[in-house]
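Q: Could you write out the predicted structure for this multi-component system? I'm mainly interested in how the pieces pack against one another.
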Amino acid sequence: MSLELETPLSLEKIRGLEAGDKVYLSGTIYTARDKAHLLLCAGRSPVSLEGAALYHCGPLMKGGRVLSAGPTTSGRMARYTEKVLSFGVRAIIGKGGLPAEPFAGRAVYLAYPGGCGAAAGRQLKLIRGYFEELGMAEALWELQAERLGPMTVAIDSYGKDLYRDVRASALRRLKS
Amino acid sequence: MRSEVVRATVRALKQAETSLPGWVVELIEGALHSEGSPVARSQLQFMLENARLAEEESIPLCQDTGLLVFYVEVGRDLQLDFDLKDAIAEGVRDATEEIPLRPNAVDPLTRQNSGDNTGLEIPEIFLERIDGHSLRITAFPKGAGSENMSLLGMLNPAEDPWEFVLEAVAARAANACPPLFLGIGVGGTFDLAARLAKLALLRLPGSSPLELELLGRINSLGIGPMGLGGETTALGLKVERAFCHTASLPVAVNFQCWAHRCASEVVR
């Protein structure tokens, strides 16, 4: 069973998602990594982030085509989560997870299978680039997603966090 | 000969970046067969689909085409009248354009990107002398997700090195794109342990009783593909040892993602 999502994402739609759900997402999404986050948080977003899906990804592009575009490690952007969610971002897509607290009541974290850049490239089309002077990996790319997935709701808006549960269980098993 | 080295570098990189070694595919297929968690199965299936797609279309499996590492075996009877490292760096620049690769190499302090995946000391090249006339180039692109989770411990000899490895995996695996491969260096000095850990990744998969037992313990942690739960946390690991000082116990763990990209080309 999988769910279909479309951007812009409403709060109601987000509240309908639970950790463990399998989802596919269509519509406009924005990539952002370390440097683009710094600019977003400085109030320099070139786009509206209301209802947006932000993708932690530094794609490999060639001639206006998205060749390979899997997720990057979200943990590096943890320091910016609270701020970008306050701009109205409803979904953060990445791998490895983020602290769950900032998501409560307003957003979800979607895990895209890491390393699957070639498959993701097929699901994404370039619309335009911002901050391209930051380089290919760090620019903010506006992309059109066509059934981006399979993704797993890893952190839901009710405070459930699959990564935290799995890690806690692993540490318990280690000590037993 | 120099131009052959340049071209062999490009070919090895292209194969490594766009396809998985057959034995890695088989390990993932085996994991899919035995995995019970639906979330884990869905991801393993997609990993296999991604590998097929990348190979068919000849595009990089992962957008993180890595920092480029090479293991080069040079025949003792071979006379080289050119700078080998320079030729491999030229191959890297060509491959960055041709495959293409994402430019990943930056100055550590200014963060300025060279744009061509080369720079001070990069690509990283391990040179080894072997018998004969041939030259074998192994391309080993290393993504940052897994490399960033790697760590080195200068343990007290009274401590258990395997506990150190297990704790590292339990705390760090989710960010390193599991199911993992692990290169483990035990002993030596501070730097030798780390080098052994990297070389261990080039000698995968390990099959000694010690390696298989450690693999079993890691897979009992329940971390699963991408850290979302499941029985498949690691696909393989290799332990390399060196004698160390009687007062030391260095242990290095080099994490590697499921996409263990590695390919060799021989220049005769």
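A: Regarding packing and overall arrangement: Residues 38-57 of chain B form the longest helix (20 residues).
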